[in-house]
């Protein structure tokens, strides 16, 4: 069972600038909680995502000694990956690969075909530098653009990623449209078909339907879940202000019997989050 805490996803689109010092304090506290992985920052254009412009500066202030939690950084192109692999303690590079042609263009200014070529190059770079690539299947449960979508299309791209040696794929409910039957169908099909791949769930949901999505994925064998403290972040194209990341508070409560954490550090992180998301 793995919980991936994603403060990067919560902070990157936040309306108010988050001071580097506060960000560092928050991340260092989250590192003590006991999450498997911390999605802490991204190496992308500071013009596109100004909240992440200080990722390198933040990295150098993280207190990692004695910490088991691994670091994940998001990258959107080969240039970002070339930066990220130079940081010793970053274990994972995350790339948003979209099942929707429209969203791929909007998110990374490239076609799906071009994005797949980028994945090839980043995977080779990761292997060279002893990093692991996490491929996020954005719009993994459908899209609002009338682009072609089906579970078979998801399966075809999973096969292509498997042939590249990609070891982690996170199915992402980018605009919060996934329903339990489809979630269960995808995970129950893909997990046994590709035992060499760890399939994760990166859901966006409202406060009212998050648990159905998590339960459907868990019943289908998924054991890797992304969340963000407070449920902040998510995709602005969801056109629903209630749709955000799964609130990690809910994940910790749901899995409290099987996922032990440092509750003192967790409570401190909850209090610090109130200074950021105001």
From TrEMBL:
Bilayer-crossing regions: none
UniProt GO MF annotations: lyase activity
Keywords noted in UniProt: Lyase, Metal-binding
Gene3D superfamilies linked to this entry: Aldolase class I
All residue ranges annotated as the Pyruvate carboxyltransferase domain in the record: 1-267
Family statement drawn from the similarity comment of this UniProt entry: Belongs to the HMG-CoA lyase family.
UniProt xrefs under PANTHER family: HYDROXYMETHYLGLUTARYL-COA LYASE (PTHR42738:SF7)
Name listed for the protein in its UniProt record: Hydroxymethylglutaryl-CoA lyase
Organism: Flectobacillus rivi
Top-level taxonomy: Bacteria, Pseudomonadati, Bacteroidota, Cytophagia, Cytophagales
């Amino acid at each position: 069972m793995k919980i991936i805490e994603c403060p990067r996803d919560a902070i990157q689109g936040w309306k108010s600038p988050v001071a580097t010092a506060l960000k560092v304090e928050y991340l260092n506290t989250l590192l003590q909680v006991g999450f498997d992985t911390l999605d802490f920052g991204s190496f992308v254009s500071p013009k596109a995502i100004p909240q992440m412009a200080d990722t390198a500066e933040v990295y150098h202030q993280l207190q990692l000694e004695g910490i088991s939690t691994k670091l994940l950084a998001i990258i959107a192109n080969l240039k970002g990956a070339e930066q990220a692999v130079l940081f010793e303690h970053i274990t994972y590079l995350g790339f948003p690969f979209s099942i929707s042609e429209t969203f791929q263009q909007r998110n990374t200014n490239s076609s799906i075909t071009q994005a797949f070529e980028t994945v090839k190059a980043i995977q080779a770079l990761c292997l060279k530098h002893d990093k692991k690539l996490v491929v996020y299947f954005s719009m993994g449960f459908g899209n609002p653009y009338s682009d072609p979508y089906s579970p078979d299309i998801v399966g075809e791209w999973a096969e292509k990623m498997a042939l590249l040696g990609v070891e982690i794929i996170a199915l992402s409910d980018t605009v919060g449209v996934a329903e339990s039957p489809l979630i269960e169908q995808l995970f129950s099909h893909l997990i046994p078909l590709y035992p060499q791949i760890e399939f994760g769930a990166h859901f966006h949901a409202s406060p009212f339907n998050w648990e159905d999505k998590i339960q459907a994925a868990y019943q289908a064998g998924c054991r890797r879940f992304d969340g963000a403290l407070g449920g902040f972040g998510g995709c602005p194209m969801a056109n629903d202000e209630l749709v955000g990341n799964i609130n990690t508070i809910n994940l910790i409560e749901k899995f409290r019997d099987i996922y032990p954490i440092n509750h003192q550090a967790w409570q401190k992180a909850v209090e610090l989050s109130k200074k950021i998301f105001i």
